[in-house]
Design a protein that fits this description.
Blueprint: H1 2-5, H2 10-17, H3 21-28, H4 36-46, H5 52-55, E1 65-66, H6 76-98, H7 117-130, H8 141-147, E2 151-154, E3 165-167, E4 173-176, H9 183-199, H10 208-222, H11 225-235, H12 242-252, H13 256-265, H14 271-283, H15 303-313, H16 318-325, H17 329-336
Parallel strand pairs: 2-4
Antiparallel strand pairs: 1-3, 3-4
């Protein structure tokens, strides 16, 4: 699991510790036991403590991981994601023992296999109602999820191969794709993963049916059907008003491509009208990057960093957290992509005021 976490092959590990690939394969499959010296070499290489090899077992099950890889992804990418998901789950579990985070309580809507598109539209509206969002634009999907008790983070090293994913654990985690330049597309991905958490508890996902359901939820959650029907006349009157479309996009923080798709989804545009809009975006070079994208700031997750700051105030630093998880502070910072407060050294201590005495 640690090898996969670091996206390394058996050959790469073998070369670094001076062993053969065959010998390391026997170690991984339990056919032989390493020497204490080799355990220390592997620990240094993988930024962990030696005891991790003897007392840690995987904590994630397949049905807890809602995962989408791109068609061009390596087969290894999913294994890398699972291993990283395992360690972020351990970290979040540790934080939960030290701090009082927002209570996670997701509404239940029954068996997802029996839900049709109208059910999903209703569920998205029900979620907005339960979470006090009304029908207007959502200012920050990341902050919303964190207020719902979901940890939002990213795995930068594999963002180019893996779309957003979520971990349906006791304290769920949504992993954003940092490779996407568009804040709108990131927001849609977060909505998609939120859809999995709402609709697919204890369900293995990744097939066309469950992915379509999550996409439908995201579109319905970001732009409720009542709002789409209300605003479409100003966006399309026989032909598209692209200026108005751009303004609508900036207000709702949803891409123009997603707005077109949402309108088609609700039968507010014919297939021909929808395709004409898609062709326009391709012709103007906006099929991947839309011209308003730079005006919409990316959302930065806050919960994890706030947790580390709160722990530091309690005297719990990166060294303490990493020790509890049998890893190094460097391992934790690479995992979270954050600069976690370190334990103060004597040189960091505040300089005391000089003592004074009366000179007679």
């Amino acid at each position: 699991m640690l090898r996969l976490y670091n996206d390394m092959s058996l050959d790469e590990i073998a070369a670094k510790v001076g062993k053969t690939r065959q010998y390391l394969h026997k170690l991984e499959t339990g056919q032989t036991q390493p020497t204490a010296e080799l355990i220390h070499e592997l620990s240094d290489l993988l930024h962990v403590m030696p005891e991790i090899f003897t007392h840690m077992k995987p904590v994630l099950q397949e049905e807890q991981i809602h995962f989408r890889s791109k068609r061009t992804s390596r087969q290894l990418a999913k294994k890398v994601v699972v291993s990283r998901g395992d360690y972020i789950t351990r970290l979040v579990g540790y934080i939960d023992t030290k701090l009082k985070l927002p209570v996670y309580a997701m509404p239940s809507f029954g068996n997802s296999e029996s839900l049709d598109v109208n059910d999903i539209e209703r569920i998205a509206e029900d979620c907005r109602n339960q979470w006090g969002l009304g029908l207007g634009p959502i200012s920050s999907m990341s902050r919303l999820c964190e207020n719902l008790g979901i940890v939002v983070t990213s795995f930068p090293s594999i963002s180019k191969e893996v779309d957003a994913l979520s971990l349906a654990t006791k304290r769920p985690v949504i992993v954003r794709n940092e490779a996407k330049e568009s804040a709108c597309r990131q927001r849609f991905d977060i909505g998609h993963e939120l859809g999995h958490l709402v609709l697919h508890d204890a369900v293995v996902t990744g097939d066309h049916f469950t992915e379509s359901q999550a996409n439908r939820f995201s579109g319905a959650f970001l732009i409720p059907r009542a709002m789409m029907k209300t605003h479409l006349p100003s966006l399309f009157r026989g032909r598209f008003n692209w200026t108005e479309m751009g303004e609508f996009k900036k207000t709702w923080k949803v891409s123009k491509a997603a707005i077109l798709y949402r309108a088609r989804q609700l039968d507010l545009l014919s297939q021909e009208q929808y395709l004409s809009g898609v062709i326009y975006l391709k012709r103007t070079g906006e099929a991947t990057t839309e011209k308003e994208d730079y005006l919409i700031a990316k959302e930065e997750p806050e919960l994890l960093m706030n947790c580390f700051k709160a722990l530091a105030k309690k005297g719990i630093y990166a060294e303490d957290i990493s020790s509890a998880l049998s890893v190094t502070p460097e391992f934790l910072e690479e995992l979270t992509n954050l600069a976690i407060p370190r334990k103060p050294t004597s040189s960091d201590d505040r300089i005391r005021a000089p003592s004074l005495r009366i000179v007679e």
